[in-house]
From TrEMBL:
DNA-binding recorded as keyword: yes
Domain DUF3967: 155-180
Keywords: Coiled coil, DNA-binding
GO MF assignments: DNA binding
Family matches, as Gene3D superfamilies: 1.10.1660.10
Name of protein: DNA-binding transcriptional MerR regulator
Species annotation: Scopulibacillus daqui
Amino acid sequence: MDGLLRKKDVVEAVGVPKSTVSDWITNFSPFIPKVKNGSTVYYKPEAIEVLLTVKELRAQDYDMSQISLELTERGFPVDAETVSDEVKTTISRAEKVKDRDALLTVMSTMGKAMERMTELEKLVAETKAQQLEQEKINEQLKEKIEEQKQYISDRIEERDAKLMTAIRELQDSRKQVAAEVDHEKKRSFFSRLFGR
């Protein structure tokens, strides 16, 4: 599948042992973008960025819940279906072992993810509104440009018409002057010839 990675490709890119990558994929699965094809799981290239961030945070001694919160804070998208499955699994586990902290971690992560989703929805709505406003402005500018083109075209036609009229008048004047000069030459020639 084009652009998708197998687990071994992810392991090579992240630079940690396969077992560590497997643990991180399991622990942070809501943040790991993946595609299932039958029983085979492929990872999207974005998974590498998530896992590299996990690696960086583990190097800073962050625990699992801190990493989950940090991934949410940094705006990594969360797969809602995976989160739903994770919540069900965690609730079931927490009920069995009475692990209140695990449940609180999941609920906190979900809350942060929902806040982020709400922020993103608002941002998308604002962007759409800005885009619509920009499209209106663009339409107005197009209309103004068309008006200016028409104005320029009309002025050029008007100028050309005046110029052609002036050229014709000038040519007519030259013809008249030439005719008068020619007439005057002929008349003076005949006047000299006949003495008039």
